[in-house]
Amino acid sequence: MSTLSRDELRTLFLFEKLTDEQLDWIAENGTIEEYAAGTAILHEGDPATCFYVLLSGTLRMTRLVHGDELEMVRTDQRGSYCGATQFLMGQRGEQRYSASVHATTDLTFLSLPAAEFSEWFSKWFAMAAHLLEGLFLGRRNTDAVVGQRERLLALGALSAGLTHELNNPAAAAVRATSSLRERVAGMRQKLAMLARNDIDPDLLEQLVDVQELLVKQVASAPKLTAIQASDHEDELSDWFEDHGVTDGWDLAAVFVPAGITVARLEEVHAAVGEAFLNTALRWLGYAVETETLMGEIEDATTRISTLLAAAKQYSQMDRARFQWIDVHDGIDSTLIMLSGKLSHVEVVKEYDRSLPAIPAYAGELNQVWTNLVDNAVAAMEGNGKLTIRTGRENDRLMVEIGDTGPGVPAELSQRIFEPFFTTKAVGEGTGLGLDISWRIVVKKHRGDLRLRSEPGNTRFQVLLPFTEQDQETEQAE
Ligand SMILES: Nc1ncnc2c1ncn2[C@@H]1O[C@H](COP(=O)(O)OP(=O)(O)OP(=O)(O)O)[C@@H](O)[C@H]1O
Ligand SMILES: [Mg+2]
Questions:
Q1: Of 150, 222, 283, 313, which one's alpha carbon is 20 to 30 angstroms from that of 72?
Q2: What is the distance between the alpha carbons of residues 315 and 337, in angstroms, rounded to a whole number?
Q3: Cα(91) to centroid of ligand 1, in Å?
């Protein structure tokens, strides 16, 4: 283990003005390390333990940005430094290298143990250390404030969307309930009428049986096209006319969607005979209608509870924030929340259900799905195919959200991740969707967010680690 003399250290610009005592500390604690050309010296994300000063050779510093390795710096300047630099900014706790460093040629480094160096640094330059720390904390507070604001914006958008989504089924349920009240009143009257006409109790019983039969048929009635429906209505109307039933058209409109055929009417006819046919059919008409209306109310209220369950799952109001989750749950609840926007979009789910649970912030991942689906739908202008695929890529889980829109031009492929970058009209987009998503996926989950795009086939890929990762210490909370 060789080291440098005071004079040699002074030739490095960082150490130029240090006192003899300070230089001695560096000489004593520093080690000289040699690396062959092509060696990867530090890896982005590894625990940051050393502070390096370049003595000779050329280095290359890179960072992974959206899956691509970007070269940040290439230098042969003697005295350039890299490695654990955040310590000097007063950042506490475990640090990680923010970039990878490779040897482009054979090179030598002076390496210092980061924790000790940082400690001495703040003793030697107390005021500078305070100022740097202030700078660092200031940035972190700004990030925290911005983060909170973003969460509020997301919550606002969520509740606006939810209100809109809840409105339709709620209105449908109210409408159906008031029609139901009318029909039930109608049934009571028809029953009274049947009674007044001295209907034979056996006949009434038979009628009730037919009624049960018809009502059961409602739920399982096949969906008819408009043309099929109108053909069937013609058929029933003719039958009503032949049998002297008044206003047969109204009844046909009720019976056809319930799957009631001429053969069934013949059965009713056979059971009740000519005298009661008219009243009996009206009564059955009401029975079928009430069943249909109750079905509508059931659908609407089910939809309301589905939406509320999705909202709850979406916002994770009732759960701890970091947990082991099945990504499909969050994606499905997001799709339910966004279903209003998806009405003209073909949604294809290609889920790999064998994927294990992953450790994640479920509520925040839902924001990612929302942003990506929202962008995809916007790009397709509401029409096209949205494909959501899940699978694995090496040691990470992949969620891919694909659309058939025009795609992202190559020259914009990096810029779209910048905060406030948007191609949408003023008031339509804030340009924060992808920036927020990137921070959630990459910063919070140590995953990756990548774009693969060509016209007609744009895919945003979210990669998430299967195992728990150390959380970033500078995280704004
Ligand atoms: N699936 C996509 N297809 C084509 N372009 C896209 C797609 N997703 C994003 N973009 C482009 O990236 C830009 C930035 O997206 P981002 O989600 O960050 O903001 P925004 O959608 O414009 O606004 P916001 O999300 O705040 O409503 C979009 O304006 C659009 O030009
Ligand atoms: Mg967006």
A1: 150
A2: 11
A3: 34
pLDDT tens string 28-82:
999 999 999 999 999 998 998 999 999 999 999 998 876 677 888 899 999 999 9
Q: Which CATH number fits domain 6-124: 3.40.720.10, 1.10.10.10, 2.60.120.10, 2.40.320.10?
A: 2.60.120.10
* Residue 6, token pair as written in the block: 């005071």
- What architecture (CATH level 2) is domain 320-465? 2-Layer Sandwich (3.30)
Q: Which residues surround ligand 2, an ion (CB under 5 A)?
A: 375, 433
| Nearest ligand, measured from the Cα of 153 | 1
pLDDT at 379 over 80: yes
From 374, 377, 416, 459, the mutation candidate for ligand 1 (largest count of ligand atoms within 8 A of CB) is 416
Closest by Cα among 305, 307, 381 to 159: 307
Q: How confident is the model at residue 320 (pLDDT cuts 50, 70, 90)?
A: low
The answer to whether 100 and 42 have CB atoms below 8 angstroms apart is yes
Q: 455 CA to middle of ligand 1, Å?
A: 15
**Is residue 20 classed exposed, middle or buried when 0-12, 13-18 and 19+ CB atoms within 10 A define those classes?**
exposed
Structural contact between residues 370 and 335, judged by C-beta atoms closer than 8 angstroms: no
Minimal CA–CA distance to 462: which of 430, 443, 437, 432? 437
pLDDT value at residue 160: 67
Per-residue pLDDT of 94-105, as tens digits, reads 788 989 999 999
Alpha helices in 316-386, H assignment, sequence order: 327-337, 362-379
In contact, 408 and 458? CB cutoff 8 Å: yes
Per-residue tokens: 476: 């704004």
Please state, in angstroms and as integers, the Cα–Cα distance from residue 206 to each residue in 189, 229, 256, 266, following that order: 19, 28, 22, 14
301 and 175 Cβ atoms separated by less than 8 Å: no
Domain boundaries, given as residue ranges, for the chain: 6-124, 163-307, 320-465
Dihedral-angle region of residue 273 (phi above 0 means left; psi in -120 to 50 means alpha; beta otherwise) = left
Ligand positioned closest to the Cα atom of 376: 1
Candidate of 401, 422, 462 to mutate for ligand 1, largest count of ligand atoms within 8 Å of Cβ: 422
Ligand 1 binding pocket (C-beta < 6 A) is 371, 375-376, 379, 403, 405, 407-408, 416, 421-424, 429-435, 458
Q: Mean pLDDT lowest for which of 155-159, 237-241, 418-422, 450-454?
A: 155-159
Q: Do domains 6-124 and 320-465 have the same CATH topology?
A: no
